Amino acid sequence: MADKPKRPLSAYMLWLNSAREGIKRENPGIKVTEVAKRGGELWRAMKDKSEWEAKAAKAKDDYDRAVKDFEANGGGGGAPNGNAKKRAKPAKKPAKKSKKEESEDDDDEESE
């Protein structure tokens, strides 16, 4: 069985993937974290993001279509709401008494 389609990239991530090499060229020896930081600065300063937003919208449409096909062909792992990978939360353990509470309980027993 095929894996569920991966979520589409955002407009920013699509842009960053195309701009990454240029950022590295302009700043030789830059760290990966600094590339992302510089990319964020450039993205925020960008006036016209419509090209990238359109590409992201198309990617989302393609993704939605792929998910529908996937689910129509028996994908989804049997969970009716599509959350097959979510695990049940473990049962909560009873709260431990603090040392102070224990000593107060001991005092109560002695006074009876």
TrEMBL record:
Subcellular location(s): the record lists:
Chromosome; Nucleus
Q: Mind telling me which InterPro entries this protein's record contains?
A: HMG_box_dom, HMG_box_dom_sf, HMGB
Q: Where is the composition biased (Basic residues)?
A: 84-98
Segments of this protein annotated with the region Disordered: 56-112
| Gene Ontology biological process terms, A to Z | regulation of transcription by RNA polymerase II
Q: Which UniProt keywords apply?
A: Chromosome, DNA-binding, Nucleus
Q: Where is the composition biased (Basic and acidic residues)?
A: 56-71
Lineage top rank: taxon: Eukaryota
**Gene Ontology CC terms:** chromatin; nucleus
Q: Name one GO molecular function term.
A: DNA binding
Q: Which Gene3D superfamilies does the annotation name?
A: High mobility group box domain
Q: Which stretches make up the HMG box domain?
A: 5-71
Task: Give the annotated DNA-binding region, as residue ranges.
Answer: 5-71
Compositionally skewed regions (Acidic residues) per UniProt: 103-112
Q: Which CDD domains match?
A: HMG-box_SSRP1-like
- What is the protein name for this chain? HMG box domain-containing protein
Q: Which organism is it from?
A: Drosophila navojoa
Taxonomic classification, please? Eukaryota, Metazoa, Ecdysozoa, Arthropoda, Hexapoda
